[in-house]
Write a structure and sequence with these properties.
The structure holds two protein chains of two kinds.
Chain A lengths: L1 H28 L13 H11 L5 H13 L14 H36 L4 H15 L2 H15 L11 H31 L2 H9 L3 H13 L1 H16 L2 H6 L6 H9 L3 H29 L7
Helix pairs in contact in A: 1-13, 4-5, 4-7, 4-13, 5-7, 6-7, 7-9, 7-10, 8-9, 10-13, 12-13
Chain B lengths: L1 H36 L16 E5 L15 H10 L4 E3 L6 E3 L2 E6 L5 E6 L2 E2 L5 E2 L1 H12 L17 H5 L10 E5 L2 E5 L7 H4 L10 H9 L19 E7 L3 E6 L13 E5 L4 H9 L17 H4 L5 E14 L9 H9 L3 H9 L4 E2 L21 H10 L11 E6 L2 H18 L3 E6 L1 H9 L5 E7 L6 H4 L16 H12 L3 H18 L2 E12 L4 E2 L15 E2 L25
Parallel strand pairs in B: 1-12, 15-16, 15-17
Antiparallel strand pairs in B: 2-3, 4-5, 5-9, 6-7, 8-9, 10-11, 11-12, 13-17, 13-18, 14-18, 19-20
Helix pairs in contact in B: 9-11, 15-16
The chains are: A mainly alpha, B alpha+beta.
């Protein structure tokens, strides 16, 4: 098992290299410069700034130098925030984005799986319809609608939670709900579908024939099989919660790294764009790996190796 | 039967859900009108969420630099103005230069040499502040090694430009310390606006001793503005800086005018979204969403009805550059026709809606005593005449023209309105092209456009800050238009000692340039603000500069006394320094 994991991790290296090369090329091919602004900068000053960041060197040399720095764990300097290194910016923002994603994940699992189970074991009852219609609404309402609606009702009307900001637990709730709801909805539908698929299978019939209690059948057998589609969905879902928090982080002014994904590209903050792309790519690859491993535990038919 | 029951259930469910959604929207819209229901003349809560010694404000985004010598953005400038103090400070209402670190000054007969006499004062770490700290700061500003984007502000000093190009030693700069408390500044031209400009953030003194100290300790001196190191001489000192969240400032007890500073603490958040900042204001998380935060245009009509809404003119002009080398816009008649066909009053009333002032002049009227040109803002008949004179009997004869702007809802709406006006009045077909910001800038720099939108914010209260845009060697002139006549007119005006005569000469130059129409001015900016009625000591001024040192919380304001006008006089109230 460990050997296979190591092998999979080693396979990540060439993928990562391709990602670095491709994103480096793309970001440098984009027209415009990190130092252009509405106001002209004296040419001497511009040269000085370009030399500081090494942008005056030929591109291949810059790329090799970037790779060298990357191996040492140095992601470079930000041009937009010249007093911060990219490492520092990520170290500041990533834990925030992670905790936001964690809350969103918890919320989506809690609500999604509960609604899914209810839908499956009470199939075609009013409970099922309520749960699944709610899920349909949840999937259909984008976060830029849900977020402001929550702010209007919960914060500005009922004065229960602050409308934006970051610092204590009260600030996490609304962005967490906003980010998690759309996933909760998908998870509910996947859980229901997955469980309905196994509900008629032989091993459930066998379990019933053995005289197992209904709750034991649901928790031990049906859920385990029913959660398989959810598990394979969770990998990309977690990755997309991390990368897709841009809108939520903007609405609630959460100081995570979401907005950089867009802003850094707009600002041509080359090293910051690269840093964030690499981080996201790493997480995406890691999540896929984790899903494969977890799959092996849940479904005896899947052989990880 | 079962199927029927099922569908009935589904329908019932849909109705219920539909109701839920409707209720939710009703709740949302009720919130917007909620204040009106309670007859409150204020937008959101009016009970301060903190003590009278504190203020919570917003400064829109994480500043690039807090280093006066390197800063080039308004969010950084806002912090620098309140943590550093230069030779002079701007009056919070009129912006006239007032003594600050300099108690008084002499001006030579030719208007080029200023001698400043400094008061004894100290840095926040107790070190004496001397004339040498100014010399150090201004040399550093123009030194090419610094890489300051605003190095050009130092080109007004003798040898500033040569030093920046590496042609002269920094020691030759026209800023010299006569003794520890006397500073002599020699200018290239006798600029009448020099004292006003001198309060700009680029000209603050710097603690040379701190730079040396950091270097001795092996710390990168670029990091000197971080709260753990920073030494300043202004009204407030930064004590905490959470990246992209908020900063905390405490009163600087070593500040020379500390007795006038009323607040002990200011919390400055960095909220970029205008809507989020407005929500936080409603909830009382901000007492003032800050000078640099604009209010969302779609709420403007609604917000205008509240007592805590304020607006004032701002020293900025929104205009369209024209590439004067590319036909058919190489003909000044066509360019003037385009300008005259724009109904600017409708544009500001129905499109921008923020109380802007439609104007076809480049220099805002009344700026530092300047009498604006008052070019007609709309004359379609004359516009058609000019177009016919240029050889285009109808607008359809004119080749397709492209108007480009950087991607933004606001710029798009303005461009669409003008596209429609040109189509309607002149029959000209205009194609719109929106471009991502950096692409747009790269195209503007190379004049790779036919017409493109731009805005210009004046750095100082003098017409020259706008007129300079059209000079031949100005790097911000993107029109390809240049005229030695115009350059000479401006040069001669700047050599003129008599202030009134100078303004008259500048006016002539503006009229000359706008007759050629290398750009089409559209409107003069306004700043719109929400300020809680219990906050005092904020004045509206056209450079949007609001020193925190005069701000205070009025404890006598009664939030339950919601009579109209109870807190209306924020912009006029308070003690104005003499």
């Amino acid at each position: 098992m460990i050997r296979i994991l190591l092998q999979r991790l080693l396979e990540l290296i060439p993928t990562a290299l391709v990602i670095v090369a491709a994103s480096f090329a793309l970001v440098r091919l984009a027209p415009g410069s990190p130092f252009s602004s509405e106001r002209e900068i004296p040419p001497e000053v511009r040269q000085k700034l370009e030399a500081k960041y090494g942008f005056d060197k030929p591109l291949p040399e810059q790329f090799i130098r970037y790779l060298g720095n990357l191996l040492r764990g140095d992601l470079g300097l930000s041009t937009k925030y010249p007093q911060r290194t990219v490492n520092e910016i990520i170290a500041n923002g990533f834990p925030v984005t992670l905790s936001l994603a964690a809350i969103a994940l918890l919320w989506s699992l809690l609500v999604g799986i509960t609604a899914g189970i209810i839908g499956a074991i009470r199939q075609n009852t009013v409970w099922d319809h309520v749960a699944m219609t709610a899920a349909l609404v949840g999937i259909s309402v984008p976060s830029f609608v849900l977020g402001p609606l929550l702010v209007l009702t919960v914060s500005l009307r009922l004065h229960l939670l602050p409308p934006a900001g970051w610092g204590d637990w009260q600030h996490v709730v609304l962005p967490g709900l906003t980010l998690g709801t759309i996933y909760a909805a998908s998870i509910a539908r996947l859980t229901r579908g997955g469980m309905l698929e196994v509900v008629r299978s032989d091993f459930i019939r066998t379990a019933r024939a053995k005289g197992l209690s209904e709750s034991l059948i649901v928790w031990r057998h049906m859920l385990r099989g029913g959660l398989l589609p959810v598990v394979s969905y969770l990998g990309p879902a977690v990755a997309s919660m991390l990368t897709g928090s841009v809108v939520v982080e903007k609405i609630f002014n959460v100081p995570g790294i979401g907005p950089y994904f867009v802003d850094a590209a707009f600002n041509r903050d080359y090293f910051l764009v690269m840093g964030i792309v690499l981080l996201y790519a790493f997480f995406l690859l890691l999540m896929n790996l984790v899903v494969d491993v977890v799959y092996g535990f849940l479904d005896p038919r899947v052989d990880v190796s | 039967m079962v199927v029927l029951l099922f569908w009935l259930k589904v329908i019932a469910l849909k109705v219920t859900l539909g109701r839920c959604v409707t209720l939710l929207f009703m709740a949302a819209s009720l919130q917007l009108c909620g204040c009106q229901q309670q007859q409150s003349p204020y937008f959101g809560t009016v009970e301060p969420r903190h003590g009278p010694e504190e203020l919570w404000i917003n400064n829109s985004s994480e500043p690039e630099w807090l280093d006066p010598g390197r800063c080039s953005d308004s969010t950084g400038g806002e912090i620098i103005w309140n943590t550093f103090e230069g030779l002079v400070q701007a009056h919070p209402a009129t912006l006239k230069p007032l003594p600050a670190i300099a108690t008084h000054w002499d001006i030579s007969d030719d208007g080029r040499t200023y001698t400043f006499y400094l008061r004894p004062s100290v840095w926040s770490d107790g070190h004496d502040l001397t004339a040498h700290d100014f010399v150090f700061a201004l040399r550093r500003l123009v030194d090419p090694q610094t890489g300051s984007k605003y190095a050009s502000n130092g080109f007004i000093f003798q040898e500033g430009l040569a030093i920046s190009r590496g042609d002269a030693a920094v020691e030759t700069l026209g800023v010299q310390a006569i003794d520890t408390h006397t500073l002599e500044i020699t200018l290239v031209d006798p600029l009448p606006y020099f004292l006003n400009f001198l309060s700009f953030y680029s000209f603050m003194p710097l603690p040379e001793h701190l730079f040396q100290d950091l270097q001795n300790r092996g710390i990168d001196s670029d990091l000197w503005t971080r709260p753990e190191y920073v030494v300043c001489n202004g009204a407030f000192r930064m004590t905490d800086w959470r990246f992209r969240q908020h900063m905390t400032f405490e009163k600087n007890k070593s500040y020379w005018d500390a007795a006038s500073v009323k607040l002990d603490r200011i919390r400055v958040a960095m909220v970029e979204s205008a809507t989020t900042a407005m929500n936080m204001y409603v909830a009382g998380e901000f007492d003032w969403p800050g000078g640099s935060t604009s209010l969302p245009a779609e709420f403007m009509d609604h917000l205008k009805e509240y007592q805590d809404f304020h607006s004032h003119p701002y020293l900025g002009v929104y205009f369209y550059w024209i590439n004067t080398e590319e036909p058919p816009l190489d003909d000044p008649l066509v360019r003037r026709a385009l300008s005259l066909a724009i109904d600017r009053d409708s544009l500001v009333q129905f499109v921008t809606r923020g109380g802007q002032h439609g104007s076809a002049d480049l220099v805002p009227d009344g700026l530092a005593g300047y009498k604006g040109l008052h070019i007609p803002v709309y004359n379609p008949v004359k516009a058609r005449q000019l177009l016919a004179e240029a050889g285009y009997a109808t607008g359809q004869d004119l080749p397709l023209v492209t108007l480009s702007f950087n991607t933004s809802e606001g710029h798009k709406q303005v461009a669409e309105a003008i596209q429609a006006m040109w189509q309607q009045e002149l029959g000209i077909t205009v194609e719109l092209a929106n471009q991502e910001w950096k692409v747009f800038l790269a195209n503007a720099e190379q004049t790779n456009f036919q017409i493109c939108r731009m805005g210009w914010i004046g750095d100082y209260a003098d017409p020259y800050t706008f007129l300079e845009l059209l000079t031949s060697d100005c790097g911000n002139n993107h029109s390809n238009w240049s005229s030695t006549t115009y350059d000479t007119m401006l040069e001669q005006a700047n050599q003129q000692h008599d202030a009134e005569e100078r303004l008259r000469m500048l006016r002539e130059a503006e009229a000359f340039a706008l007759h050629e129409q290398p750009l089409i001015p559209l409107y003069v900016y306004t700043r719109t603000q929400l300020i809680k009625p219990y906050v005092r000591g904020i004045w509206g001024n056209h450079q949007d500069r609001h020193p925190w040192k005069y701000m205070w919380i009025d404890e006598s304001f009664d939030p339950h006394d919601l009579m109209v006008g109870a807190g209306k006089n924020v912009f006029e109230d308070g003690q104005v320094p003499q």
